[in-house]
Specification:
The protein is 35% helix and 14% strand. By secondary structure, the protein is α/β, with parallel strands linked by helices. Strands 3-2-1-4-5-6-7 form a seven-stranded parallel β-sheet. A six-stranded parallel β-sheet has the order 10-9-8-11-12-13. The two termini are 35 Å apart.
């Protein structure tokens, strides 16, 4: 379905994806598909040396510097991360890289975005409560999850007759479980008839990567990918700590296990002693009716959309703001230090 802007102006809409980390691809690829169906045009900007570079496809249109961005002149620039160059053309759109996981700063109007495309009622309410008038907040659902509600072609690669456990910890040194759970995962990958998948955060340290790569055997796969959907679909249980991937996995009405979660809730199994890992996983694989009911209630609050059309709702919200303009929004704060940092990183020192 063509959007309102296309119908009125009959122009090809141009969208720029600003990416630094590989988790962005799983958020933006569904949007890219929806844009292509509408006859729009997509380009990518990835700063040189970014972790995400190796996940770009040969056929992707990559803009190499700010001057190419200016020439492309996007109607909208989208970012799953927390910051975006203020000097890029077009409206600036936050499409998020995770759910509210209880980490500091999840609800934050940073003064860079014109539009926040929120995932569900809880995050919409959170951003509406702090909106200072410098942006719009529109609940669209999360583009990343569009593929979650239809079988991914790569899911079968990770399926097993054995119970499949996905371990996906966060990167934050104060919250990650990598070091405390490592010896127990090592033991269980050898002693129990379970199939493990380990997917570390893109910001994981070289030491953590080496640790878990070293555990690879016929019962444990270490996976580096920008698309976690096949892993989420294939796994029977997710093991993590304080990461928004817990909520993503639970949307399938599957059980999650969290180690020392910063904000434990009734829809998860949380534990605080690493030695309890085996028992917690056994409990998760058995499940309980009460736990599954709690998971369903939580899913309705964070992401009630299971139609796979969140990307279309996001584009509708973007194109509506492009059509109306941003003159009704209040002026954004100067953010001088952050603006200087972004300019230094991209080697661009003009102010427009």
């Amino acid at each position: 379905m063509l959007n309102q802007v296309d119908n009125k102006t009959d122009i090809q809409m141009r969208y720029l994806f600003y990416v630094t980390l590989s988790y962005s691809f799983s958020v933006l690829r569904p949007l890219e598909i929806a844009i292509n169906k509408r006859g729009g045009k997509v380009a990518w900007f990835i700063p040189h040396g970014s972790e995400a570079e190796k996940f770009l496809k040969p056929e992707d249109v990559r803009l190499l510097d700010v001057y190419q961005v200016k020439q492309f002149n996007p109607h909208a620039t989208l970012a799953p991360g927390n910051f975006i160059p203020d000097f890029f053309p077009g409206i600036k759109v936050q499409v998020f890289h995770g759910f509210d996981s209880g980490k500091k700063g999840k609800f934050n109007i940073r003064g860079f975005f014109d539009l926040y495309c929120t995932q569900g009622p809880n995050i919409t309410q959170g951003f509406n409560a702090i909106n200072d008038g410098t942006c719009e907040v529109v609940e669209t659902g999360w583009s990343k999850l569009d593929p979650l509600f239809s079988l991914h072609p790569d899911t079968h690669q990770f399926k097993s007759e054995k119970p499949v456990i996905l371990y996906a910890p966060t990167f934050s040194p104060s919250l990650t479980s990598t070091h405390e759970l490592y010896p127990y995962i090592k033991q269980l990958s050898q002693s129990r008839e379970w199939q493990w998948i380990v997917k570390l955060h893109p910001k994981a340290t070289a030491e953590e990567i080496a640790m878990f790569k070293g555990l690879s055997n016929d019962k444990l796969q270490f996976i580096e990918t920008g698309d976690v959907i096949p892993l989420l679909q294939a796994a029977d249980v997710l093991l993590s700590d304080t990461s928004s991937i817990l909520a993503e996995f639970a949307l399938q009405e599957k059980v999650v296990v969290a180690f020392n979660n910063r904000r434990p809730e009734q829809w998860m199994i949380n534990f605080q002693q690493a030695s309890e890992l085996e028992n917690m996983l056994d409990n998760a694989l058995q499940g309980s009716e009460e736990l599954l009911q709690n998971i369903t209630s939580h899913c309705n609050a964070i992401h009630p959309y299971q139609d796979g059309l969140s990307s279309d709702r996001t584009l509708n919200a973007i194109d509506k703001l492009v059509a109306s303009g941003t003159s009704h929004l209040k002026a954004k704060p100067l953010n001088l230090i952050r603006r200087i940092k972004i300019r230094k990183k991209l080697k661009y020192y003009r102010w427009s």
